[in-house]
Specification:
The protein is of the alpha+beta class and 209 residues long. It is built from six helices and nine strands; from the N terminus they run αβββαβββββααβαα. The strands form two sheets. It has a six-stranded antiparallel beta sheet with strand order 1-2-3-9-8-5. Strands 4-6-7 form a three-stranded antiparallel beta sheet.
């Protein structure tokens, strides 16, 4: 994959390569379908009921969740409206519904332990059981191969955003540790200002079309 042409210091380039390696290594599961804003859909039942959760791209960007705010059972969520609110130390960001849906059930375990959605997103960390308001076959859900191509595009976009943001930083203080020289940088959120991080998240979560 070609690197963006925006130049950064060699130490910063090595740091970005390390942080983005898990993104590049991630692969979708062929038993699931995916949305372009990084939700997975699985365990389809009758009447287009299914289970949803966050995929690996979103899991890797979200460094920590101290709360997930869900709608009430039976709530109808229009396309593009918040299916949930993801609360992090840097602020709160909406997780938009990629299609119209109705909430059948919330994972109460994740409500009580929100970081389970990051630690085990395809297992105990699922988000909700929902009813799709349109037939799943009529929706632009991504197959495993299509999701894999979309994930690669997402990594390229994230990489370009990080290069651009860090190349514009005036203090040039980015290295393997935070500027105070102590804590080792382990996530993208540590590289960006809260505003830049939320903007990146919103770009990743944006509903296509």
């Amino acid at each position: 994959m070609n690197q963006p042409e925006i130049s950064v210091e060699p130490m910063v380039q090595r740091l970005l390569e390390r942080l983005l390696a898990p993104f590049r290594d991630a692969r979708p599961r062929d038993s699931l379908l995916y949305s372009t804003n990084h939700l997975w859909f699985g365990d389809f039942g009758l009447d287009d009921d299914c289970r949803i959760g966050i995929d690996d791209m979103l899991r890797l960007i979200l460094s920590h969740l101290h709360e997930i705010i869900f709608p009430v059972k039976g709530h109808k969520v229009p396309r593009g409206s918040p299916l949930a609110w993801l609360c992090q130390p840097t602020g709160m960001v909406a997780l938009p519904a990629p299609f119209p849906m109705t909430v059948n059930e919330i994972n109460t375990t994740v409500r009580e332990s929100p970081n389970l959605a990051l630690a085990d997103p395809y297992g105990e960390g699922w988000l909700a059981n929902i009813h799709l308001d349109h037939r799943a076959t009529d929706l632009p859900l991504l197959s495993c191969s299509a999701a894999d191509a979309h994930w690669k595009e997402s990594v390229t976009a994230i990489d370009a955003t990080l290069h651009r943001t860090l190349s514009e930083r005036s203090d040039k203080s980015v290295g393997e540790t935070l500027p105070d020289g102590g804590r080792f940088i382990t996530s993208i959120s540590q590289l960006l200002s809260p505003e830049d991080y939320v903007n990146l998240l919103q770009d990743v979560l944006r509903v296509a079309g």
